[in-house]
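User: I'm curious whether this sequence folds into something compact or stays loose and floppy. Could you predict its structure so I can see for myself?
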Amino acid sequence: MGLVTGQGYWTPLIWLALAAGVTALAWLFWSRGRRTYKAGTEQDMPFLSGERLPEGVHVGSHHLYWGFVEGLKPILDRLVGFHSGVVVDYVAWTVVLLAIALVVVLT
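Assistant: Here's the prediction. I'll summarize afterward.
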């Protein structure tokens, strides 16, 4: 049960075995982890850049990812023009990009 293409050999059983191996490896790493977490202790307190936050303070993603946003600002500024907030526009972009990908793959 395999598919011979111009680029090689593909069989779903090999991919299934690889997926099972990756899952087993992930489980192995997880099972060897530390079990020192205790709910209701100091471990539950928010921690941001070495500072303890006062009770009731909310830290949004805008603050957590500030460095990434500043570093990628030239790219993000160019992408703002494509962001309309309308789901139909995003679906249209997805369809157009899938069509281009299909043309590239099939030619």
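Summary: Residues 58-107 form one domain. The beta strands are 3-5, 8-10, 47-48, 51-52.
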